[in-house]
Amino acid sequence: MKRIALLLLVGLLVVGLLPNLVLAKELTGTLTIWSWGAGHEAEMREKAVEVFAKKHPNLEVIHSVIPTADQVWDQRQAAAFAAGNAPDVIQMSPDYYGLLTEYYEDLRPYVERDGIDLNEVITEGMLDVYYRPDGKLEALPLLANVFVFAYNKNMFDEFGVEYPTHDWTWQDFAEMAPKFVTGSGVNRTYAMVRHWVLPNFAIICQGGVPYADDFSDIYMDSEEVRAGLDLFRYLIVEAGAIPTQAAAQTMPSEQLFLTERAAIYPMGGFEIASLTEEIGDWFEWDAVLPPKDSPDGKNTNITYATGYAMYKDAKNKEAAWEFLKEVSFANDEMAQFTAQIGMPANKKVANEIYAKKSHGNVSNALYLKGMETSRLNIWGGALATVGDIWTEMWDSVNVAGMSAAEAQEKYFPLLEKEFFELDLSK
What we know:
It contains 18 helices and 13 strands. It is α/β, with parallel strands linked by helices. Helix 2 runs antiparallel to helix 14 and helix 8 crosses helix 9.
């Protein structure tokens, strides 16, 4: 009877009737991996790699977790690429925008060879940003984080403001924001903290886009971007509903929220667990999607993502490819460790485990929803030099008090010149 059952199992495997039963590849040699991180993040990356190493006992896995502080990661990575001795697998972010793509293996042939439909296994909204304009797939996604707007229900009740909903708009926010402004100095209260992500929201909050998806053109002179800048000028300079740059230097934004001096905090998926713990029982809170760009538009959001790439001159490419698959989508146990530091690329784990976890009243499912209308970090990688000019433009409006139209007239020629000199549309 046992023999019949065994033969039946073999037969089913042969004819492909057990597609979910995948036999582990026999991997040998050495695989080198570089990841970045510190603290809890580093611990989770190490545990995920340990799972992979245990599954492939005949493969020597050498994993290094390198801190990003003080540019340690950037320096070691640059030196390794320059010397031609980079690890087989290296962590990356798609918001590098092709800055290092020359060092990465094109993964399309591997995907095609293995007959993988990535859209079926990768969390919705995570894959496209890893393709270059020429079609190259330079990495596989690991995780992503977007934002929800956490709000202090006690402050909303105290100031007589209705709680926001997922259908609210930036105009709704602009109308309610001045109602939270009271006091002065250390006793001043605000509608929202001055968060580092707000300059990116300013570009998209009125339906604007910074540039074409294929980098063929830049749109920072548009009416929509101007309207976004004007909106934040009103909120910061005129209404005082968001701290000025000077005021923000007196207290970190998360502390402003935790001490109930700001009603709203843009909370990234990477920090919700720690902030939930800090809030504790101090006040009642909830969260909604960031406001819509218009009543019939979409909720604005910004994605910060990370993945893993294969070095083009990797010494063990088959092991590297197997690791990329497993850490991205093909090993649920690895993905569960990833899910503790962000939304995992593994669609199954994202939908069945990550989405069902809650922090207070806020379900991680809200972050998954936020991915649907999100834009990747706008000024990453090679575009950082353009981003520096945008920072000057932002400061000219929200620190110096220049109008958005004046700022566009002054800074757009500089933005345009720097953007086209990069020539990222290849």
